[in-house]
Amino acid sequence: MAKIIKERIPTPERSVDERVKSFAEVNLGYTFELAQKEAARCIQCPYDFAPCIKGCPVHINIPAFISKIKEGDIKEALRIIWNDNTLPAITGRVCPQEDQCEGACVVGKVGTAVNIGKLERFVADYAREQGIDKELLEEELKKIEPKDGKIAIVGSGPAGLTAAGELAKMGYKVTIFEALHLPGGVLIYGIPEFRLPKEILKVELEKLKKLGVEVKTDYLVGRTVTLEELCEEYDAVFIGTGAGTPKLLNLPGILLDRIYSANEFLTRVNLMKAYQFPEYDTPIGVGKKTIVIGAGNTAMDAARSALRLGSDVTIAYRRGKEDMTARIEEIHHAEEEGVKFEFFLNPVEFIGNENHKVKAVKFEKMKPLEEKDKRGKRKIVGTGEYVTLEADTVIIAIGLEPNKIITESKGLKVNPNGTLVVDETLMTSIPGVFAGGDAIRGEATVILAMGDGKRAAESIHRYIESKKGA
Ligand code: FAD
Ligand code: SF4
Ligand code: SF4
Could you tell which of 447, 452, 454 is best to mutate to test the pocket of ligand 2, judged by most ligand atoms within 8 Å of the CB? Predict the structure, then answer.
């Protein structure tokens, strides 16, 4: 057996000095040579055993694509990845790999896991830069046999985009209806440029256009058109409307100025490009001291964006560091960039000045218990002690839930937490209407949304075929 190389080949990154002043991408990705060196660390576990494949929610044949990188055959590497994942440039950047493919990698038991995410990103980026992805797409386009059947996709996040791409490849006529003026869902309005350059998404959207997918933006299903009307016009509908409604804190002072939900803050910064104001029309008010409440990817994105807009930023979380849900890379980057962290603090009041602007947040100090909750996190209790931290900007990032505009459509069954009820084929309570992504899971991940999009596309195909046979 070949000797295991314990240490990962690091990916080049922009310096901290440069990145705190800019929204340019932080991680620069592997070069061809570095990717081949990292690929050499994979010990090529056999397909039936490879734990990384089991750890990936869409079960990409990871050893096979890594072996193609070693051979220098990037086209084959991309073909293998595309069998299960059509957006590798995105998942390679944003998947929580430490809990998925890399978390399961055997090399990680004796050293650091093979850098699967960055290798996946390398294949996608290199293929795009060299035009290899266009060649592969042309090959796929030649294989498409048009089929009878029109499908409406509601929402253009990773779930909707994946369902649309898969159905178009099967030969169906697909139309996406998107409420915002640009498609992409959280990939365009939530995740900042310094983690996911929007140029990458643009290329993916162009591919969908080549597959014949039509995208109708500024189209709010439930208002501009109803679900019932879509059901009349289309043979099947897929709902991928995500979970874009922020949960807020019902606390004294919540209506003070400069208290944002993370979604509003990030939408202004990313989608409306407030960080380039006045070149773009939308401004964003960020003061000298920002407190971000939360501990997930959204909190981290909001904190690092506020920092880049010139604020001193503190993340306040009611639990401990080990319970943070953000990707490890984002926590690490936030720390490097100078974001401060305060743990075991639970907000109880927002304090304002005479101009109705927030000037401080009062927190109760919490303490952890030995007992764990259902999610395996240690339970916490208030100590009765309080601390007040100054802040002229507060961003609340404590979670999201599905938007009611679509889920309140006639005939759709909804769970108590607002997510849509679906069966094992991802069909909702309305025959022919399928759903996936955050709309059925609540806040989850890009790859799970994509996996649902792919599974729903297969179910929609079977549904249309069965109707023809009926
Ligand atoms: P979304 O991406 O939410 O897309 C839904 C789309 O539907 C939106 O474009 C919305 O405008 C549209 N829509 C809603 N209602 C209607 C309607 N009535 N009519 C028409 N269109 C409608 N996950 C990761 O894996 N890694 C990360 O690093 C990560 N970071 C994140 C950072 C932030 C700031 C946020 C908010 C989430 C992050 N996530 C991350 C979670 C991930 O982005 C989501 O799980 C994923 O985007 C869900 O995909 P989706 O397609 O279900 O929905
Ligand atoms: Fe890992 Fe995500 Fe790629 Fe699967 S899709 S191999 S989990 S980075
Ligand atoms: Fe390679 Fe790790 Fe997967 Fe084994 S588990 S095939 S070493 S990436």
Answer: 447
